[in-house]
Amino acid sequence: MIRIDSVTKRYPDGTVAVDNLSLEIPDRSITVFVGPSGCGKTTTLRMINRMIEPTEGRILLDGKDLAQQPVNTLRRSMGYVIQNAGLFQHRTIVDNIATVPRLLGWSKDKARARARELMDRVGLDGALAKRYPYQLSGGQQQRVGVARALAADPPVLLMDEPFSAVDPVVRKGLQDELLRIQEELGKTIVFVTHDIDEAVKIGTNVAVMRTGGHLAQFAPPAELLSNPADDFVEDFLGADRGIRRLSFFSTADLGLLTTPIVAVDSTAEQISERSAGDVPYLLVTDVEGKPLGWSEPARLTAGAVDPERLLPYGRPFEHGKESLRAALDGAVLSPTGWAVAVSADGRVTGVVSQQTIGEAIRAAHAEGDPDGRTDGRTDAKVAG
Ligand SMILES: Nc1ncnc2c1ncn2[C@@H]1O[C@H](COP(=O)(O)OP(=O)(O)OP(=O)(O)O)[C@@H](O)[C@H]1O
Ligand SMILES: [Mg+2]
């Protein structure tokens, strides 16, 4: 655990970058520092590996004051990733990643073997190993940066706006990858961003900072969204925090209907059986059980179903895995107001109306704070 204990950083010109900051960074989790430009995020991160020394207060790693530890040993136990990756332009990808193991005295072969293993781990094609950084896309370079930071297997990873320079799609991929790596390797990650969505998505805990180096709130994302400490945090979270909070509620208990579903090759009898009880719409699936679209029962003719003429089914959600936010999104996207639940392989497991989703949301709120950690984590990754 890293404990930041009443830390203040005052630069020589008098600027107070961090003001009396205290918080605990638990092991094997992702702690995110988020806040507007100049609020002291980078300064805080750099005090953790002693690139910057605090003016007052102390930082403890596993109970030991950082100030008492040799800087070199300390840095080796902390991988560091920055925006634009900061790669060595004259070194190949594999040698960039092998940098720290080589410094630690590993043989070239062993270091390169380790580098190739890490390329695989961060989702880089081995064929890129001999290229130079300028021959890679921004997103690929960022992955190299992560692999390089992981090379000596440090327990701690410090990341300063690592994904800020790439487009939103690549960025989402990098975030998902980071979550997967963290789950696999159990690193203690300290992550700086100014993007609150990124913070909510990847953070186990989020520290919201405000200008002047003040800590405005330190909490798990679900709690930030449900209980912002003050107007600043609420403002920073943005207008749709209620909707975003739904990402932390599971769909596992959502009551699905399995009756109003017919396969495209259903007989007239099956269609009429399935539309019993005033069902407004039937979901038509292909022969494998994957969704095709909705239809009013009266408009379905057995043996002559035209998938082109069905109403769109929106975006299906993975039942039990994705959140109420995904379910609601699915319902809102379909003109019928019904969402389609699928299993991991895309086959329909049931359908659910906007109204039922609304009831589930009310029930979830009534139960108090959502279980942000387990469900939220899995979900944020899947639902975005
Ligand atoms: N070497 C320095 N000397 C004087 N002031 C500094 C120095 N480095 C940073 N600052 C100031 O300290 C404050 C915090 O800077 P810091 O880089 O930690 O902010 P940040 O939250 O990382 O911002 P950004 O999101 O823009 O990266 C800012 O007001 C900055 O101008
Ligand atoms: Mg910064």
From TrEMBL:
Pfam family, one: ABC_tran
Keywords, alphabetical: ATP-binding, Nucleotide-binding, Transport
MF terms (GO), sorted A to Z: ATP binding
Signal sequence segment: none
SUPFAM superfamilies in the record: P-loop containing nucleoside triphosphate hydrolases
Region (Disordered): 363-384
InterPro entries assigned to the protein according to its UniProt record, in alphabetical order: AAA+_ATPase, ABC_transporter-like_ATP-bd, ABC_transporter-like_CS, P-loop_NTPase
Domain (ABC transporter): residue spans on this chain: 2-237
Family classification: Belongs to the ABC transporter superfamily.
Descriptive protein name: ABC transporter ATP-binding protein
Lineage: Bacteria, Bacillati, Actinomycetota, Actinomycetes, Kitasatosporales
